Amino acid sequence: MVDYLPGAIKPTMPSVPQLASLLYHLHHQPRFGWRIQMLPLLERYWQACDPARRTPGWLRALKTVRRQGEPKPLRLAPLHMDIHPGNLVHQPAGLKLIDWEYAGDGDIALELASVWLEEREREALVAAYASRAKLNATALQRQVKRWRPWVRLLLAGWYELRWRETGNQQFIALADDAWRQR
């Protein structure tokens, strides 16, 4: 059972300062008590997708992240892991997050790497977040970049899985787009 949150869902992301403030606040809440494990999730997507869609490029990317291992966390915190316009409720008192299906504890840089933004906006978000959190912006930016290949695989794999589960052509188009962005 969940509570209804009154407010507006807008089609675009909020301003960088608003988003940085929301994430900073979230990341200072008590941890959930379970870690987000990226590699098992990526491997599950690989196994569950349409075998005809398992490309050598996907396998290479999966082997690469497996060999490298997950980046050592800069700071562990509760993460939402699905921040996009549809999961942000705009209220007079500020932004609220909904849809906590993928939440867990993890590296704050993983969350920043997974926010649905263009690269230039992401860099601005990381800088604003680093300033607010009193972190070294260069080190945080490097950590976010370490997580980006993991996030790209996560998105593409999720779209592949959703396409297989639903047959909805929108998901295969999004998967194809995600693979082109690698």
Blueprint (SSEs and pairs):
Elements: E1 8-9, H1 16-26, H2 38-48, H3 56-68, E2 76-79, E3 88-91, E4 94-97, E5 104-107, H4 108-114, H5 119-133, H6 137-166, H7 169-180
Antiparallel strand pairs: 1-3, 2-5, 3-4
Q: How would you explain this protein's 3D organization?
A:
The chain has 182 residues and is mostly helical. The chain has seven helices and five strands. It has helices at residues 16-26, 38-48, 56-68, 108-114, 119-133, 137-166, 169-180; strands at 8-9, 76-79, 88-91, 94-97, 104-107. The longest helix is centred in the C-terminal third of the chain and has 30 residues, at 137-166. The chain is globular, with a radius of gyration of 17 Å. The model has no long low-confidence stretch (mean pLDDT 95).
Number of strands: 5
**Helix run count:** 7
Average pLDDT number: 95
Succession of helices and strands = EHHHEEEEHHHH
Under the CATH scheme, which architecture would be assigned?
Alpha-Beta Complex
Salient structural properties:
two-stranded antiparallel sheet, 182 residues, Aminoglycoside 3'-phosphotransferase, Chain: A, domain 2, 3-stranded antiparallel beta sheet, mainly alpha
Q: Outline of this structure?
A:
The protein has 182 residues and is mainly alpha-helical.
